[in-house]
Write a structure and sequence with these properties.
The chain is built from six helices and three strands; from the N terminus they run H-H-H-E-H-E-E-H-H. It is mainly α and 121 residues long. The protein folds into two domains: 40 residues; 71 residues. It is globular and about 45 Å long.
Length: 121
């Protein structure tokens, strides 16, 4: 695997650009230029809908960070990427919202324990 492909895989896995640059021995600006030139953000158009952005969800993410060393990079809307799949907040703090999210994507992912506990889902 060449350096560009290795950097791309690390980026899609959620690694920070400066950490990737340090790992493969290139500058962060080189990694950023590869990211834009080869459209790494457009690799996956798969979108998973997160049912809520709550303290419980953040606690779950903290557990993932502690156990696996994975830390999500949130954008200004609270979305993040996990292995190339964009996790998007679909609604907040509403049980009715689960029904609204349902069926909006072919991948139909609901990422939180509250939606899994709801029999209607």
């Amino acid at each position: 695997m060449d350096l560009k492909e290795q950097a791309k895989q690390d980026y899609l896995a959620g690694m920070k650009i400066k950490d990737i640059a340090q790992k493969i021995g290139k500058s962060a600006s080189t990694i950023r230029s590869w990211k834009s030139r080869y459209k790494w953000d457009d690799v996956s158009d798969k979108v998973a809908k997160a049912a809520t952005k709550s303290v419980a969800t953040k606690r779950n993410n903290n557990e993932l960070t502690k156990k696996y060393g994975w830390e999500p990079k949130y954008d200004k809307h609270g979305s993040f990427k996990l292995f190339g799949v964009k996790i998007v907040v679909a609604f907040t703090n509403s049980e009715r919202g689960v029904g609204a999210v349902r069926g909006m994507t072919a991948y139909g992912a609901y990422i939180n324990e509250a939606s899994l506990a709801n029999r209607a889902v």
